């Protein structure tokens, strides 16, 4: 794609108007890391004095938590017969919030993407196409808000139609599309493309068509002014066949507009010195207090309260991406190590849930499994474990290894994506230099994970001061949002200054 420089350079110090579009955001609704980002990056940008507004679908859970809300517009959107209400409220830190209220599409409790039967809602294409059209209406100042953003920050496939729909508009804001996980793409049939009444010219190999199907994520990848993923390593990985899901050619084509920005974490919410969910507060100056949390976690999970046991923790979705099959393969071996304990919290694919529950029952002595989603227990696992397991096959950024570092829980990770960018493998030299923060392995196999766990156990039984040095180095890393927010501002400016040529503008 041509790079054209805007003839009217903007003042890069001036406050930007940013519309941040996401399908989930903490503390309103969360299924994964996207919600953490959508709940933390906007406040960080607001702190830097930018006018940022968040737009989400009006799921019942969100409406309940965001009250008071007022109706600010009625929108008539293409491909949808019913009028749609735009509700307005305020999120913490005075961030204006817009909710797209279409009860027939979003008025369902529970998971935003999946029904109670565990399958995707059958009308997800209609739901998120409508969401995209509402975002476009706000972005073009066609929603009666007397406000037009300079940039629309789109996140994941649920917002993927925004860049292509804006692409054909004359006076449009710039777009940034962030890939939080390329594995989720929003693929639907060609019939749905027609039903959604999307512009016919978008049905092409260069547009939304992907092997005869409609791909929402391709809209973001092909049309956004800038693209990014949530770590530099993942930004490279997705340009290869191994991680690119057939989109690597398009991504390589757009590589000059693609970069990686590591997620930050919310240092107020994930702070071992003030965490309301844990038993004993601690920090790097009082690391030894952490062991009180370990004993409490052992008690809560029904394990023997032994502070010398080596306690491994896991929190996360139980899906193949996270390498759960590798952990399952090792469970019999781990169960035989008397001085080892394993605590796992997660939910996801039924066969993983069942296999883990079975293993938990068979090895009551040292393995405790909690199936479900439990935010508070997640904090206590971070606070009470010695090591945190993250054997992911791929990991765009990963947040749990960052929480672990903050809580002095040494991560054991596979060298991929954001894990490779945030955890430094222990060697004698790196320990001496004060750089080492965890255990890193390469192959996505159970034997490779086993070697890493063995290494961690051996290391744990060396002098206490060695372990403390490793854990405390992790606690002192800075993965807070302000530095990531500044990198996002740079991307916003690049997108504004260097837009993709617009086919209907005179510049095209
Ligand atoms: P992903 O977005 O792929 O699920 P991340 O590591 O980026 O992975 O983010 C996962 C987020 O969801 C973290 O905040 C993690 O603590 C949280 N999480 C995942 N599963 C659970 C669970 N069962 N209980 C509590 N928190 C969970």
Give a brief outline of the structure.
With 508 residues, the chain is an alpha/beta fold. The protein is 37% helix and 18% strand.
Pick out its properties.
508 residues; alpha/beta; Rossmann fold; 9-stranded mixed beta sheet; 6-stranded parallel beta sheet; 20 helices; 18 strands; globular; disordered N terminus; disordered C terminus; binds adenosine-5'-diphosphate
Polypeptide structure, described:
- This protein is α/β, with parallel strands linked by helices and 508 residues long.
- The chain folds into 2 domains: 3-264 and 490-497, Glycogen Phosphorylase B (Rossmann fold, 3-Layer(aba) Sandwich), CATH 3.40.50; 284-479, Glycogen Phosphorylase B (Rossmann fold, 3-Layer(aba) Sandwich).
- The chain is built from 20 helices and 18 strands.
- It has a 9-stranded mixed sheet, sandwiched between helices.
- Strand 3 (70-75) and strand 4 (84-91) form a beta hairpin.
- Helix 1 packs across helix 20 (481-497) and helix 12 (324-336) packs parallel to helix 13.
- The chain is globular.
- It starts with 16 loop residues before the first strand and ends in an 11-residue tail after the last helix.
- Mean pLDDT is 94; it is low at 1-8 and 504-508.
- The structure holds adenosine-5'-diphosphate.
- Adenosine-5'-diphosphate (ADP) is lined by residues 32-33, 36, 181, 315-317, 345-347, 373-375, 378, 397-400.
Question: What's the SSE blueprint?
Answer:
Layout: E1 17-21, H1 33-47, E2 51-57, H2 60-66, E3 70-75, E4 84-91, E5 95-101, H3 103-106, H4 124-139, E6 151-155, H5 162-167, E7 174-179, E8 187-188, H6 190-195, E9 209-210, E10 213-215, H7 216-223, E11 226-229, H8 232-237, H9 241-244, H10 248-253, E12 258-260, H11 290-300, E13 310-318, H12 324-336, E14 340-348, H13 350-362, E15 367-371, H14 375-384, E16 387-390, H15 400-406, E17 410-414, H16 417-422, H17 428-433, E18 439-441, H18 446-460, H19 464-475, H20 481-497
Parallel strand pairs: 1-2, 1-6, 2-5, 6-7, 7-11, 11-12, 13-14, 13-16, 14-15, 16-17, 17-18
Antiparallel strand pairs: 3-4, 4-5, 8-10, 9-10
Bound molecules: adenosine-5'-diphosphate.
